[in-house]
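We give the chain.
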Amino acid sequence: MIHAPRRVLWVLSLLMITFSGILAACDGNTASASSTDELAMAPMAGMPAEVKSAPTTVQQAYQFAAANPELMKQIACYCGCGNMGHTSNYACYVQNVDDKGVITYDSHALGCSICVDITQDAMRYLSQGKTTAVIREYIDQTYAQYGPSNIP
C-alpha cells in the first residue's frame, strides 16, 4: 500500500510537468500572436465585407498594409501580380487612396497566399525591430523563387 501513493504522486508530478510545458507553449504562442498589438493596424470597421469574413491572417495583412504604406510600398510581391499593374506588396491590398484619405481596397490578396505570407513576414520582422532594408532583403531572398519582383 505504501507504493501505491508514491506511484500516484509520481504520475501526478509527471502530469503537472507536462501540463506546465503545454501552458508555457501556449504562453509563447500568445506572445507572438499579440505582437500585432504593437504594430500599426487599420481598423476592421473600414474594411470591405470580404476582408471582414476572411481568415484572421488575411484580415491582419489588410489591416497592416493599409496602416503601413511607407513600409509596404518598399516590399516587393512575387506572385506575378506585376502583370496586373501592382508595383509593390502594398498594391495587393490597396488600389487607391483619394485626397481625403479614403482607401479603395484591392481584392487580390484575398485569394493569394504569397501576398499574405509576404505581409505576415514583414509584420513579424517589424515587430522584432528589423529595419525596412532587412525586411526587404529577407522577402526578396525568400520569395524570389516564386516569380519576378513587381517593384519596377
